[in-house]
């Protein structure tokens, strides 16, 4: 630990240096400044770890001294030194930003070392709390705007989709509608990234091209990895698509690449490969009946320091890290493992000390694309759907998408109106599609009230991808199916048909 002592009394400065030299066992190095100006200049280069601060200096006095030091180096722990045994002053010093307060006449070497260690740990805890509060504030803000913003994006994307059906491909209007839909999808992706950043995102899967994702992310990775690390790509030209949450796949790539960067402090090569593979793996036999399954494999290999068998065995354990204290959370690879598991894939890692590390990720190939809205198999069969939605744009979009498919639609603007409709005709509704954030009577209460009267009622809740999205077991009578705003007409039609074709109500969140 590098400590800066800002103290103008040479006798006190010499005493403090001697105490630290005799008690720290070489673990603490100390530098001295006899003026606040000299101390602030020394703090500016960022190499100091903690400050021992006298409050009475030739060019500054009192708590203004502490204020200036805290403003110059807000992340550094500060221990105030004083000759006055004053409890009120000690309390004020801590409230003003100091981590501890020591009286010079009572100092010992062990007390100084213990105080500096405590000050650093307390400062780190304060920084972590401040960061958590900041993340919580961002999450609250994101959750607050997501509902209305996603309503607008849902309408824009849906009506642009419907517009594409009514114009000739290649026409100017077709290009205009395509541009509108593309811009709305980009805006929706930005919202998903914000929600992922705030850790309040409900996974929103879509058909993605891993090669395009890697190529786009490589521009950012090249800057992050630095000049000492060469980034090499070997991407299969005929790579199949996967159905995945784009922001989560980007997070997987980023975490693994940063992990490789840290394993190559002297530089090296990071190689990313993709390929189509057919896997007949025992891990899948129970679910697939020993049938081979098509996967997209993403391989990341580095020329770093590698891992020994003990470290390799714990690579995906939460909170396990080989980095110095304060340098890593130990969650990066655990998050990667969790994301890949959620996507019905798996990740393997192999490594040897001095021979680098190889990560292999397998993701199921997405079904071949088709337009379920235009296929008879996924069309409506005169089923009645009750849409509970207070936003006119989203309700209109659902009618425009589902009505022409052969569904009979009814609408309620809130939960109480929905209950009235269902009470009047309890067996006349095949599916209830409800916004998750209803006025007056919320979706939880609505699901509970309906299932009390009709336990087999099927539901599709429309989520805003925010903190109030329900999870398994959170709703009366069991979990329900979910679809996140903004959604396309294809996603809505597919989800509705999937639920209606199911013999029994959903037993788990989809």
Could you describe the 3D structure shown?
With 510 residues, this protein is of the alpha/beta class. It has three domains: 2-107, Rossmann fold (3-Layer(aba) Sandwich), CATH 3.40.50.2300; 207-369, Histidine kinase-like ATPase, C-terminal domain (Heat Shock Protein 90), CATH 3.30.565.10; 372-501, Response regulator (Rossmann fold), CATH 3.40.50.2300. Helix content is 44%, strand content 20%. It has 15 helices and 19 strands. It has helices at 10-23, 36-43, 63-72, 87-95, 109-165, 172-197, 210-225, 246-262, 282-288, 309-313, 332-342, 392-402, 415-424, 443-453, 489-501, and strands spanning 2-6, 29-33, 50-54, 56-57, 60-61, 78-82, 100-103, 206-208, 229-234, 242-244, 268-279, 293-302, 346-351, 357-364, 384-388, 408-412, 431-435, 458-463, 481-484. The chain has a five-stranded parallel beta sheet, sandwiched between helices. Helix 1 (10-23) links the parallel strand 1 and strand 2 (29-33). Helix 5 runs antiparallel to helix 6 and helix 7 runs parallel beside helix 8 (246-262). The longest helix has 57 residues, at 109-165.
């Amino acid at each position: 630990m590098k400590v800066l002592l800002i103290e103008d009394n040479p006798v006190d400065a010499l005493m403090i240096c001697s105490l630290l030299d005799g008690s720290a066992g070489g673990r603490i190095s100390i530098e001295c400044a006899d003026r606040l100006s000299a101390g602030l200049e020394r703090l500016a280069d960022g190499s100091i770890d903690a400050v021992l601060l006298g409050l009475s200096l030739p060019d500054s006095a009192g708590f203004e001294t502490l204020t200036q030091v805290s403003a110059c180096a807000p992340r550094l722990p500060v221990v105030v030194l004083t000759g006055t045994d004053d409890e009120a002053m000690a309390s004020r010093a801590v409230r003003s930003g100091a981590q501890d307060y020591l009286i010079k006449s009572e100092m010992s070497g062990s007390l100084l070392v213990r105080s500096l260690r405590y000050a650093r740990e307390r400062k780190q805890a304060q920084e972590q709390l401040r960061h958590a509060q900041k993340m919580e504030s961002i999450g609250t803000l994101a959750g607050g705007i997501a509902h209305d913003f996603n309503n607008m994006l849902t309408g824009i994307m849906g009506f642009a989709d419907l517009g594409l059906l009514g114009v000739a491909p290649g026409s100017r209007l077709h290009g205009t509608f395509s541009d509108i839909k593309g811009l709305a999808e980009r805006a929706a992706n930005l919202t998903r990234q914000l929600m992922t950043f705030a850790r309040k995102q409900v996974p929103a899967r879509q058909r993605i091209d891993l090669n395009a994702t890697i190529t786009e992310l490589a521009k950012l990775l090249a800057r992050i990895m630095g000049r000492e690390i060469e980034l090499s790509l070997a991407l299969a030209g005929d790579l199949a698509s996967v159905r995945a949450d784009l922001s989560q796949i980007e997070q997987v790539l980023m975490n693994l690449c940063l992990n490789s960067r840290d394993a190559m402090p002297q530089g090296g090569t990071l190689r990313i490969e993709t390929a189509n593979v057919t896997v007949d793996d025992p891990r899948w036999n129970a679910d697939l009946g020993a049938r081979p399954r098509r996967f997209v494999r993403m391989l990341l290999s580095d020329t770093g320091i590698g891992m020994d068998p003990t470290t390799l065995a714990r690579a995906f354990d939460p909170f396990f890290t080989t980095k110095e204290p304060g340098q890593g959370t130990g969650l990066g690879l655990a998050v990667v493992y969790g994301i890949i598991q959620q996507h019905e894939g798996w990740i393997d890692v192999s490594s040897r000390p001095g021979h680098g590390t190889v990560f292999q990720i397998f993701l199921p190939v997405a079904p071949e694309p088709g337009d379920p809205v235009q296929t008879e198999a996924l069309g409506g069969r005169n089923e009645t759907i009750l849409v509970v939605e207070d936003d006119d744009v989203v309700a209109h979009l659902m009618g425009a998408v589902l009505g022409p498919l052969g569904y009979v639609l009814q609408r309620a603007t809130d939960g109480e109106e929905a209950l009235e409709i269902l009470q009047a005709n309890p067996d006349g509704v095949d599916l209830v599609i409800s916004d998750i954030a209803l006025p007056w009577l919320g979706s939880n209460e609505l699901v509970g009230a309906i299932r009390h009267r009709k336990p087999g009622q099927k539901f599709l809740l429309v989520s805003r991808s925010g903190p109030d999205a329900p999870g398994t077991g959170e709703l009366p009578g069991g979990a329900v199916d979910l679809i996140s705003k903004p959604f396309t007409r294809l996603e809505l039609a597919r989800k509705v048909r999937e639920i209606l074709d199911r013999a029994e109500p959903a037993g788990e969140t989809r």
